[in-house]
Amino acid sequence: MTKTVQPRPSISKAWLDAMRPRTLPLALSCIALGSFLAAAAGAFRWSIMLLCLLTAVFLQILSNLANDYGDSIHGADHVQREGPQRAVQSGQISAQTMKRAMILFAGLSGVSGLLLLWLAFGAEGLIGLLIFVLLGGAAIWAAVNYTAGSKPYGYAGWGDFFVLIFFGWVGVLGPYFLMAQRLDWLLLLPATSCGLLAVAVLNVNNIRDIDSDKQAGKFSIPVRLGPERARIYHWGLLGTAVFLTTFYVLLTFSSYGAFLYLLAVPLLVRNGTAVQQTHDPLVLNPLLKQMVLSALAFNLLLGLGLIL
User: Fold this and answer.
1) How far is Cα 87 from Cα 124, in angstroms, rounded to an integer?
2) Whole-angstrom Cα distance, residue 185 to residue 155?
3) How far apart, in whole angstroms, are the C-alpha atoms of residue 10 and residue 208?
């Protein structure tokens, strides 16, 4: 099959595409859910939420730039790849320039994160500050080493696990703890649900890239499972996310408004059905965006329902 050659974008568009702004709602939704949970507990703080959002944006952009860089140097972004054109692989941005941009956003993430921790804990909360400094360092490491670095964990199939940690447990429980200065372990239920929906986004991406990833030696979960079982896995992610959320709402029931998230369930079913029935990698591209927006809607409706 002859592949259509994509036109070379302008340098500004190449940078915008490399930053992948369509993925940002995923990073923002976990912060929003954690903030809604804090509001439901009477502990919401605008300043903490805004700095959490800023830090999450910097980390997500860092991760996206590192993904562009890492997949290009490791060979996953070759000419047969079916996804959007990558900046380093296409030659629009040099590998060295991309590395400098990664350093910039790692620095911005660090500065924003330190300001956030100082605001949350002050000089007195040294232990909490140190714990979150370590978490922040781990988040920067994870953002870079998914596909970059000498031993990228995404190539060994660990991407799903790290997405669950940072887009679920850390992304939701972190803002909650920074505001409330305490944890309720029942919150692991909605946090895990949020993380699983983020894993579903990664899963759609990896199903789309299954052939090119296999050629490059990138053993993502879909490569390991195969295309059909990867689609069953996708349904498992969506179904478990809904189940955990429902379990949490029933355990902490305060009003029927808490079931507002059910309005987003048809969006998840629609995405799962489309992924199940779609085998053309190019047709999977819009389903990736659809999954991001479905996860965002689910998390926002859940959070809003909990404070009604």
Assistant:
1) 45
2) 32
3) 26
Q: Which of 203, 176, 179 is nearest to 191 (CA)?
A: 176
Dihedral of the alpha carbons of 205, 222, 209, 145, in degrees to the nearest 10:
70
Q: How far apart are CA 166 and CA 30, in angstroms?
A: 9
The answer to whether position 177 is within a domain reads: yes
What is the reported pLDDT for 74? 60
Q: What is the pLDDT of residues 75-133, one digit of tens each?
A: 554 545 455 666 777 778 888 998 999 999 999 999 999 999 999 887 666 677 788 88
**CB atoms inside a 10 Å sphere around CB 162:** 21
**What total of structural domains would you count in the chain?**
1
DSSP character string of 10-32: PHHHHHHHHH-GGGHHHHHHHHH
Residue 4: inside a domain, yes or no?
no
Would you put residue 259 in left (φ > 0), alpha (ψ -120 to 50) or beta? Answer: alpha
Domain that residue 265 falls in: 11-307
